[in-house]
Automatic annotation (TrEMBL), chains A, B, C, D:
Bias-annotated ranges (Polar residues): 293-306
UniProt keywords, alphabetically: ATP-binding, Magnesium, Nucleotide-binding, One-carbon metabolism, Transferase
Pfam families: AdoMet_Synthase (PF01941)
Catalytic reactions of this protein: L-methionine + ATP + H2O = S-adenosyl-L-methionine + phosphate + diphosphate
Region listing for Disordered, in residue ranges: 273-306
Functional note: Catalyzes the formation of S-adenosylmethionine from methionine and ATP.
InterPro entries in the record: AdoMet_synthase_2_family, AdoMet_synthase_3, S-AdoMet_synthetase_arc
Entry EC number(s): 2.5.1.6
Binding site for ATP: G137, E138, G139, S140, G141, D142
Name the UniProt record assigns to this protein: S-adenosylmethionine synthase
Length: 401, 401, 401, 401
């Protein structure tokens, strides 16, 4: 029997899948907010790895405040140009001096940002179409003795905070998540006209799902208006097909609905992201830790990207609660909806949350009592290995947005 | 009978007041995130009024991305100093040229920010302890013919977005809200040692409420450790008293629990905000439009502060849904909990949301049917006067964070 | 007999007063380059005084790199406005940590800049029409033990550098110098339409002098084109009168010659400086240490403003050589032209220059031998009291541009 | 007979070669001031070429204000690292909109800067060890009809300004110039330990020349202190040998004299430039247009680098007067020293200077009258082809610093 304060209770609402109206959104990896999330997390990972490498421990840092100031662009069929560059300011704190060593935190941050951007938004010329600047204040310099190379102790919570996770995803959620991933994966690989800035919103009313896609097209690969129209239609068909794999409900897909072909007002970009023209971005304003924005579910306001994965309890508990929810649903049958909330208490070890409450909707005919022990055991086990989350974040294995 | 798509339904969960665990948070006006919200909204209001004044219409702008980079300070009993200034970057778009006129958007923004900061954080010397910079790209220059001085037409939604509002507030919510307001009001007036950066978290488990307060003390007014301890105790007593006015539940108040007097590690500041030392901030990362962070309720991720109040549907619907919820609860008896969600559809007039759904928990013994028509009528009426929201935002009458 | 290496020799050219063509220029205190010089020097003085005050010694700093990025303005008769603010970046190094004390170098710099700007360019609203930012790297932290409160030792030269000074000023030089001083003094006091950005160029060919003045007018005090024309004419008459006090040569004064009244192209400003519209500036690009640009004389490239007055040899020697030249001409009769050059050698005390060479043109009928000893004695004495220069710079008594 | 106002007169001083004391300085291409000069000029050239390419004319721009804020580095034998990146701000004006076209001036500037830096300071990782930012205001947009692709008209002077040039170089000048060029050329090619930041000062007293070299060594190629000492000695020997090719006077070469091996205080860098650690830089603070700082000669304060080569008279006249001086000395025998000054007058064609005065020292036994006509003819011819200077600057054929 666990000594942890774990509660498993029936949820006090319907499963989201059964609610009448459901809204789900995802900002793709090329959206300005996601760019900031991605850079912040890339910088955090690079710092953590570098600290481990140099001093054997993850020192104090927090880089969860990257700000993007949009540029100005003049896209054109066949290839336009960025007129005023995007400005990206990496903001945060990092330990720069430790036991006589200097640690080049800003240089590390710039390198990580550059590599991340080059890889993620390949049409964006870093240093030319985007200026990357950095302001990292000196961190406290306190040793975080909690996460060294050799031995790992469980750190104390640095704050009263909480995290929340859900599983399983609803059909609409899976459609949005999968469609973005595959648009930015297999589809973009074959169709270079699709930029990384795709934003999807799913709205389900009863058994009908509308998926609205805003997809930035890359002008270099779009010779004319017909090609543009074809590109839009291809995206529509692709998303429709992806949706069909996840639901039997009726689905309508709408792509770039604000276009006005007569006026020549279409969603054409030079770089594949709307950051090039008027859309600013910052960390924590877009997707939650599970990659979605889900107003039907409780969400944490906490920005997960860029935070220190060793002791920032908001980050850890958001990732861990999602992890727990998925693990439970994987291992336990007959769960229709499940929410895990972890609430920390300052000064307690983070594997001992003040309360871990799990709210469950079981399938018809199944009693909560039938699965309660099994769930509790999984939660207990996952909490016991909380530092795995830290390790996986540092290794870049967990997505935070 | 309204032609608007208004649905009034029972909520699919318990009233929050009846849930076992409830968490509520508020970042006070001096918190770095709130500073950004406040500056962004002050800038937006100033721009809107200036546009009205100069061209008779509110032109395109969006200033919802202010970023604060923390400074470094050396507080000391009796008065320390800011060592490295805070850096505040106002980011956004604004129309700078319109029909032959130039509009000094950046100058307006700087003035508004300076005035807001001087008034809100009086111990912070603007231009010396905080550098305020600005990067406003050129807005589209399209005339927003929707909100002129003389006639007001209802604009079309610019996006598919939604807003959500709740009423009535639970006891815990009212405690947190009221305590922050009065700490930063009457209490600070009499006790200048209290800084504006107070952060309150309420956690209710059953019938016990814990209120945790982090209160930045202003060193100039704190001569020594004893005075500090007294200040902390005064805050504690004051919050306890405020709480008592809102609940019969048991309440424990904890102030600056991370202090360690032995180590001299206390929450002392020069300026009254943690932005002076290591705490960065940005817009939309803190309080929701109703001034609270309420994980027990559905929340919108949309940043409300700094957005254009004429046509930014996320801003308008967040404010309007809160307004509607409060109006319903004011006018209709026997409502225990109520959530209003407004979902827009691109291209439809904003007084005609795609759906306005109202979920209600009535008091025991009251049927939803008894109040349904009354609620619908209020919603209908509020939607009809949606442009009032815009007017009140421009006049600075509505708080957005 | 001095042990210093002082050489007094005949100059190898005519006195400048006797040369056929002479050019003299001065950028007034409101010129963008002068603004940078002035801010840099104000910051340096403030830092030096603060160091003395706090630790009893002037610590390492160097702030000679302020950069001004021009704004954009829309001046108009009766009062226009700044559309895009000027951006001023204070750049340099300063000691921020010393023997356990933190010294708020950036805060000090911002305050000094703000005060200097408010006083010098009163029509420029600091924080609204100009953003003042700062990037001061950490200085070396080495104690400069050379200039304490109580005892003053003579520091060693930090570099191989040189300074150069001249006296007496020629008529043309005196006209340019005096005209700028009095335009920005008595004239502006009575005529608020004159901005601080006046630039004067004198060109003498034989016995005719042309003085060309570019004078920024302040729109608030200029109701219309006639008033503007009157203002220009007043400036012209004033400068003509000043010139007449210094010379019997013929003088033509030309004011704002690039104006085109037909086209409405005139030199009207909101703030009194061209920095508001397109004219960038930086330190060391304008006037030399004696306040003039004199191509007929040898000049040092060294920026004098903003440098540390204790040990920066370029600054000290430029000021000291000017001081010496003036002292000699005050005390010794019959000197028509005189140039003092001081060349340092790294590691030698700065009162022992590698060579101090003085080149002299005596009046007709006077032999150099007649005055040589007297000159040498003055040079020797001035060198002996080199630290007076430092003291006077710190006290703000010496102008550096 | 020319209609130009050309005067050829005896100089009113000795030839510099014959003066008793001579000082000459050159900041090598990797010095922070030279980096700024180089970037400013690279940006100017790129803009000019791009304007020609796009609209057939060089539009208004001026980019002569690049500012470099030094970083912080931790060099170490065998390879250290940059801890805080250098910050480089490109400042100026450029036409961004012209006849319906947008011209991506900032993107062009960033690209040019990046390419220049990568080529010139190869050990400096752009975007990682140096952040390049840009603030280019909108230029006036006036068409500069003066310099098109097809026809070239002679522009009017935009200012009253002057340029000055000298020839032939003295021995000391040639030593300094050649030594820097070859250190950064053949020597560095074979000895990668030598960084680009070499600063040379020559001081001649009578027939003895001291050359003081400050040479930044690149740590990656310097394994230990012995290797460092060898590197210093190699530089010394190389400069000694170069000097021997230019003079029969005695020469002493001193390299890195401020080093203190005992203290481990040596001139070791990561990137080959002192900009990495504490040395700020800006345009126009270093070398004059002929690549040297020559206090024995009259110099122009005008920054040549970064200015528009079509109509910026300060730039053109500095380059042209140097060109003329060199041409005269090439073609006319028996000239020992020669100074060319060109003075513009606003509104006159730039091939018609207000006055072109040439001051000459002939060899003993040669009368000025013997060469006067020849000189005048060359000056006349060079003035007639003034637009060649513009063309060659645009093509990057003329060095400006």
């Amino acid at each position: 029997m666990s000594e942890r304060n774990i509660r498993v209770e029936p949820i006090d609402r319907q499963a989201v899948e059964d609610q009448e109206v459901e809204i789900v959104e995802r900002k793709g990896i090329g959206h300005p907010d996601s760019i900031c999330d991605g850079v912040a997390e890339a910088v955090a990972g690079a710092l953590a790895r570098e600290y481990l490498d140099r001093v054997g421990e993850v020192l104090h840092f927090n880089t969860d405040e990257t700000q993007l100031v949009a540029g100005e662009a003049a896209p054109a069929f066949g290839g336009g140009e960025v007129v005023d560059p995007i400005y990206l300011l990496i903001v945060g704190r990092a330990t720069k001096r430790y036991e006589g060593q200097t640690i080049p935190a800003e240089t590390i941050a710039l390198r990580a940002a550059r590599e991340y951007l080059s890889e993620t938004i390949p049409n964006l010329e870093v240093g030319e179409e985007i200026v990357v600047d950095v302001k990292l204040g000196e961190g406290s310099g306190d040793l975080q003795e909690v996460f060294g190379e050799d031995e790992v102790s469980v750190p104390m919570a640095n704050d009263t905070s909480y995290g929340v996770g859900h599983a399983p995803l609803t059909e609409t959620e899976r459609i949005i998540q999968d469609a973005e991933a595959r648009l930015n994966g297999e589809f973009a690989d074959e169709n270079p006209y699709l930029g990384q800035d795709v934003k999807l919103m799913g709205k389900r009313e009863g058994d009908h799902i509308d998926v609205t896609v805003a997809a930035a097209m890359v002008d270099e690969h779009v010779p004319d208006m017909d090609a543009y129209a074809d590109a839009v239609e291809s995206v529509r068909e692709f998303v429709e097909q992806v949706a069909g794999e996840h639901t039997d409900r009726t689905v309508d897909v709408h792509v770039n609905t604000a276009d006005d072909y007569e006026e020549g007002s279409i969603y054409l970009t030079v770089t594949g992201t709307s950051a090039e023209q008027g859309d600013d971005g910052s960390v924590g304003r877009g997707n939650r830790a599970n990659g979605l924005i889900t107003p039907n579910r409780s969400m944490s306001m906490e920005a997960t990207s860029g935070k220190n994965p060793v002791n920032h309890i908001g980050k850890i508990y958001n990732l861990l609660s999602t992890e727990i929810a998925e693990q439970v649903v994987d291992d336990v049958d007959d769960i229709r909806d499940l929410r895990v909330r972890l609430l920390s208490q300052i000064g307690r070890p983070i594997d001992q949350p003040h309360v871990a409450d799990v709210h469950v909707v079981t399938e018809d005919g199944v009693e909560l009592g039938d699965v309660q022990d099994e769930i509790e055991a999984i939660v207990d086990e996952e909490l016991a290995s909380v530092t795995d989350i830290t390790r996986r974040v540092i290794d870049g294995e967990l997505s935070t947005f």
